Amino acid sequence: MISIHNEPQPTDLGDVRVANRAVVLRHVRLHAPCSRADIAARTGLNKATVSSLVAELITQRLVRETGLTENRVGRPATMLVLDGEPYAALGLQIGADELVAVAIDLGGNRLLTWRRAFATTTVSPTETLRALTALTRRAIGRVTATGRTVQGLTVGVPGLVDPAGAVPLATALGWRDVPVAAELRAALRDPGFAVGVDSVANLAALAEQRHGAYAGITDLVHLTGGLTVGAGIVAAGRLLRGGRGFAGEIGHLPIDPAGPPCACGARGCLTALVGLPAVVRRLLPDAEADGPVVDYLPELARIVALARHDDPTVLSGLAETGRQLGRGVAVLTDLLNPEAVVVGDHFAALAPWLLPAARSELAARAHVPGAGGCRLEASTLDAAAALGGATAALATVEAGRLPVR
Amino acid sequence: MISIHNEPQPTDLGDVRVANRAVVLRHVRLHAPCSRADIAARTGLNKATVSSLVAELITQRLVRETGLTENRVGRPATMLVLDGEPYAALGLQIGADELVAVAIDLGGNRLLTWRRAFATTTVSPTETLRALTALTRRAIGRVTATGRTVQGLTVGVPGLVDPAGAVPLATALGWRDVPVAAELRAALRDPGFAVGVDSVANLAALAEQRHGAYAGITDLVHLTGGLTVGAGIVAAGRLLRGGRGFAGEIGHLPIDPAGPPCACGARGCLTALVGLPAVVRRLLPDAEADGPVVDYLPELARIVALARHDDPTVLSGLAETGRQLGRGVAVLTDLLNPEAVVVGDHFAALAPWLLPAARSELAARAHVPGAGGCRLEASTLDAAAALGGATAALATVEAGRLPVR
């Protein structure tokens, strides 16, 4: 098999040190406690280089000595673990009915997970960003009060995000052309760290790849649910973004032209069949008796309760929803051959009843043998997109750049 | 926007030299004639490094001095161009009705393009590989007779290719589990260069990215036609392969559940609507009067002739085919946000009549604004997959490794 190579980049000794710093840091993250000799043996770097890099990483408080020695043949060795305690990053998530903040340290330990109910769709984007700024300030305050320095933050939005961090379209929020990154940076008065914006689907996929049950696999898709359905695609270990950063729009995949009408004007799009409003409409025909549903979470809880009590109508409706989800996943599988498709949000909440039918449909519909080895699973992460946002904000440090002090 | 990084790799001075060799080689390929000073200025490498690398590249006959000097302020400079004349690579392509061989030199100049009519579907895979070996030997003979050294070869197959170069499934050829790479290597008696196998869709996408009208863009899809439809996906400058190398199976994308039956058992798959047999069946209802069509190329020529004479039935049938193609491209566009989708084979032959309708449908069906900027165009390359195979076989030299002498 052949790879097309990206443009080769000129390399100098500074780049080499950055790259090797990243190698050592990654080795410690994955294999701690480990000794300098372990690092040299496992990475192929020579011992003098490893010693020099470790000394610098200790000075920077990215790595620390535990003083422990492992039982081993030969001389006892000083063991190293990731420190990174002085460094943190934030992930924010704008949902239709809540704002979420997560902070983690460099070791991936959660420092806080805050959810604030907020009816985003009933107020202007400006008001939402004002609330988000307030939440962000409080989170920064909490993190810095413990002596940590924030290295960056990333906001997840359920919609399209352009390379400048603006949101041309977020149907689930009713947003068009909102310059999220620029407004948040201004509101935080240029905070001295990077402020990024990305789609919740991309950030959730990043969180899965780093912290989820399938952490470390190189080809996966995360499907976000709720009012709309989105895909975050990791291919060969990298987020697939496309030419303008809009990749992952799976919500209007045509599944059943005879299906219910979609907000987009077509019929039977994936969102119109398996999005949370469609599921509520199918399983709880009485839900709209008193007018349109505004808050879907109580309805989702009702569906879960009925499914737990083996309500036959709800069970058969969930199986039908699962089959439609499986048809969408089969298209993803044939096109992208992921090792895993991980579903979040209401798909995860309903997974025990959705996934058996979805997996059968995937096996029947995918055209690559054995669905290309693709596993279809529910996410086990809490606030995946916000966690992914915080993870993304640590990328420069993990790539070997020295942290903001 | 944030990238997930692949695993950082340890770097040493040898790697640095390889990487910088690739940088210089690429600069000369894209900007020749250029001077050593130009290279230093444009790549950021220092002049001593550039001089040392250029000296080595000249010794290796990868670069040569032209002796020309450009008009410029200051001292005249010796100009450099890509040499690479001593180095060649081969691409082979196994089609349902032909075998193709292409050879290029390192500069991308075609040394030969051979097509041999061969009814692959009527003989065993072993017989086909025997014919392919004979064709390959003759091509190697032709190339080496001119004093060139073959650096590698890559075979394109219209089907699934696994990482070992075996073909688990190629519907268009009627193949299952054929170890193409192993058999060809054995038949060529371990030729001392790399023998690779890839899908024709992947290789055609690589050819487009390097030699096509959209050369250099980082996100594109090439759709291959003929008996089946396949997608080669380039994302962020790299071929997207997926976990087992099976990505790009677009032939059974469900487009119209009320459409004609597909060989897979479903109805209205993309192949069943816009594959060459479906197009012939739709536009030339008399074609099957004397039994099943075996050779589709004369039928394709008849369709082109009728379209040129404005036959109303053929024109409306092509417009309908174009709309169905456009629906498939809209799915690709929403999911992958490519900058261009380039269609080859019978889609390219019929492009003047297919693409206007396909573009309208794409604009109407894609959900990202302006179809995410995606252009839908016909390939202008001859024997794209074989050309891509030869290009792929030069990848190691282009990545800065020294050539096989």
UniProtKB/TrEMBL annotation, chains A, B:
<dbReference type="InterPro" id="IPR000600">
    <property type="entry name" value="ROK"/>
</dbReference>
<protein>
    <submittedName>
        <fullName>Sugar kinase of the NBD/HSP70 family, may contain an N-terminal HTH domain</fullName>
    </submittedName>
</protein>
<dbReference type="Pfam" id="PF12802">
    <property type="entry name" value="MarR_2"/>
</dbReference>
<feature type="domain" description="HTH marR-type">
    <location>
        <begin position="23"/>
        <end position="65"/>
    </location>
</feature>
<keyword id="KW-0418">Kinase</keyword>
<dbReference type="Pfam" id="PF00480">
    <property type="entry name" value="ROK"/>
</dbReference>
<dbReference type="InterPro" id="IPR000835">
    <property type="entry name" value="HTH_MarR-typ"/>
</dbReference>
<dbReference type="GO" id="GO:0016301">
    <property type="term" value="F:kinase activity"/>
</dbReference>
<dbReference type="InterPro" id="IPR036390">
    <property type="entry name" value="WH_DNA-bd_sf"/>
</dbReference>
<comment type="similarity">
    <text>Belongs to the ROK (NagC/XylR) family.</text>
</comment>
<dbReference type="InterPro" id="IPR036388">
    <property type="entry name" value="WH-like_DNA-bd_sf"/>
</dbReference>
<dbReference type="InterPro" id="IPR043129">
    <property type="entry name" value="ATPase_NBD"/>
</dbReference>
<dbReference type="GO" id="GO:0003700">
    <property type="term" value="F:DNA-binding transcription factor activity"/>
</dbReference>
<keyword id="KW-0808">Transferase</keyword>
